[in-house]
Amino acid sequence: MNDVSLGLGEFAQSVSGPPWILGARGCPLDSPENTVSSLALALDAGLDGFAYDVRSCASGEPVLMADERLERTTDGSGLLFDCTLPGLSELDAGAWFSKRHAGVSVPLVDEVLEHFSGEQGEAIHFMRLHSTGNLPEVLACAGERPRRFPLRIASRSREVCLQVRDAGFNSVLVGSEADLDSFRFVRDERIAGFATTIGGWHAEAGNSTWTCERWGLDVDLPEDLLTACRLPLFGFTTREAARALAVRAAGKLAPGMERWPLRVPVLPVEPGGIEGVRSKKSGEWAGSWEPRLALENPFLFPVHVKLGLRVRRGAFEIEGLPLELELAAGEACVVPTRVVGGSWSPGGDPVVLAIFTWNAGAGRRAGQLLVEAPLIRVRSIALDAISRRLVLLRENPQDVDASLIVRRHGSSLLVSIENAGELEDPHIIVRVGDHTVRAGQGLRVALPQHIGGEGVAFSCGIEGWLNRKGRRIRSLRRWAGGLPQDADTGEPGRILAV
After folding, report:
1. With 70 as the cut, is the pLDDT of residue 51 above it?
2. At 253, is the pLDDT very low, low, confident or very high (cuts 50, 70, 90)?
3. Strand order in the sheet with 412-419
4. Is the CB of residue 116 less than 8 Å from the CB of residue 68?
5. Is 174 helix (H, G, I), strand (E, B) or coil?
6. Which CA distances in Å does 214 have to 217, 228, 487?
7. pTM as predicted
8. How many CA atoms lie within 13 A of 242 on its CB side?
9. Can you list the domains of the chain with their CATH numbers?
10. pLDDT tens track for 66-113
11. Residues 6 or more apart in contact with residue 353 via CB below 8 angstroms
12. Is 252 helix (H, G, I), strand (E, B) or coil?
């Protein structure tokens, strides 16, 4: 069951939007993000288009890159804004992902618009501008070509949105949540759309007075994808192409479906805290669990189901799978399993796969659909006024111990470096909810006024430099997943109510 296309089939790809599904930075789980090959792969997977990040290099040309710095997605170092186009063209933007992608370059916006303006001209382009100074260059690139493709230019800057609108393009305001102030702005200024996360839409998403396009950002989890399709949103971006297409197709086949037909529990993890699990084979982000898989048939006809596990990273052993069973219309069951193993780094959680197959019947063709759900590993902590030591992960056997000190002070979280390990010029990085902040040796971060039963997303770590054979390498030590927020780094931890 390693071939995802086996379960995807023609059915999921044949169901069209809305909602329109765009590959976030292309297909970043299968190809280096924000490259021409990754964008093309999103279209090959059957998506309706792609979203990509735009920043400017030192010589002013707009290029595709999510980060301010070069280290994560190229073999260069330093700030993108300090690198001229000739210097940027010499960098490798693919070797960090895999050897077979070595030699891939950082693309210009102009190159992307040119490449996808032919036979693939119907693909939706969703540009996310991360700076305001490059707007004239971006508009010039877009204006040089006939409008052969749907284009959205998105920004957190309201001034940029107004300029995009005045230039005759569809502008999208990006916000932390769909609040009343944002609603009034897009309505009064005739902005084409508003974009936020699924959590950011909350109750406002059901407000029929939002007459603009409603976009969801980085929608990856099955229940969130189902919410995006049920609201419905005009479109959303995702890193999980096959999963998103399957959710949209399942929603069309079973319009009354209120929950995803395959549900799995969260796997709590305490690195190195389970006897016999911490090893060179499994790594520190490991554990032993007995998840019970809830499976049901949401359709009005019987299905045959094949269950299995796909390992994305690390080493896992599972008891109870693979398994095949028959489910009558509306029938549900529970499948007990046992999972042991893990990985050195967060992210790449194992995925439970269920291939639903059905025969032709009255008013329907025979088909199959891939239904999947990740076994998400999450670390949690309850914080109060007492200082706690957070030991950071050793993400390879050579890492030395590093730690932070955290405590809660009223509505704030205080974080300081206790031991930076081998990192030079260290500074703190903390994520609370969807916001990430950085500081030097100490940091104060605001917490939500109310922390519910599921807690609030949280992760922290230390950024710095490693000195390896005379070369300084940028490095990050983490307490949990979710950092850096833009990469495939797993689910963030949780701060729980005391």
Report:
1. yes
2. confident
3. 388-391, 403-409, 412-419, 442-446
4. no
5. strand
6. 10, 10, 24
7. 0.89
8. 19
9. 15-253 (3.20.20.190), 262-378 (2.60.40.10), 380-496 (2.60.40)
10. 999 998 899 998 999 999 999 999 999 999 999 999 999 999 999 999
11. 1, 7, 306, 307, 308, 309, 310, 370, 371, 372
12. helix
For the chain, the average pLDDT equals 89
Residue type, 397: P
Residues with Cβ within 8 Å of residue 48, at least 6 apart in sequence = 16, 17, 20, 21, 22, 123, 124, 235
Query: 272: Cβ–Cβ under 8 A, 6 or more apart, which residues?
Result: 278, 284
Structure tokens at 389: 């030591």
Q: How many CB atoms lie within 10 A of CB 257?
A: 18
* Structure tokens belonging to residue 70: 């070069």
Distances from the Cα of 108 to the Cα of 34, 258, 451, angstroms: 10, 42, 43
Q: Is residue 141 within 8 Å of 110, Cβ to Cβ?
A: yes
DSSP conformational letter for 386: S
Q: Given the structure tokens 């499994």, which residue do they identify?
A: 282
Is residue 13 over pLDDT 80?
no
SS3 of residue 311 by DSSP: coil
Calpha distance 306→323 (Å, rounded): 6
What percent of the chain has a predicted confidence (pLDDT) above 90? 69
